[in-house]
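During the reporting period, we have paired protein sequences with C-alpha cells. One record among many follows, to show the layout:
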Amino acid sequence: MGIPEKLRQLKAANRYTQAFIGEKIGVHYTTYARWERGETVPILEHLLKLAELYGVDLEFFTGDDSGGRSMRQFPSITNDSESSYKNRPTGTNPTSITITLDGSDSALQAAVQKVTKISRLISDGYL
C-alpha cells in the first residue's frame, strides 16, 4: 500500500476532512488532496507532521508494507531527535541529523538503521 492509500485510510479511520488535516499540518487542503490522489508526494516535514497527527511512526508511510502489524507497532526512526524536531522554529526544514554513539553495539545498530531509512527516503524521492 502506497502513501496515497495510507493517507486515505487514516483520514477515513479518524473521520477527518482534508481541510482539517491541511490546517493541522500547515498546508492547503488541495495540496493534501493531491497527495491522496498520488499526484504529488509530501516532503519529509509534512510526513512527520502527519505521523504525529495520526500517532504513527514515520515508517508507516515510508515502509513497503505493514506486514500485518498495527500502525502503532512500527519502530521509530526519530528516537532522541524527535523532540528536537518538534521544538524547532516554525518554518525551518531539518537539514541534518544527529546520531549519538556511546560505543555500544546497540547504539551503532540504531544509527545504521536510522541512516538506512533516511537513505531509502532520499532514493525514493521523498527528500
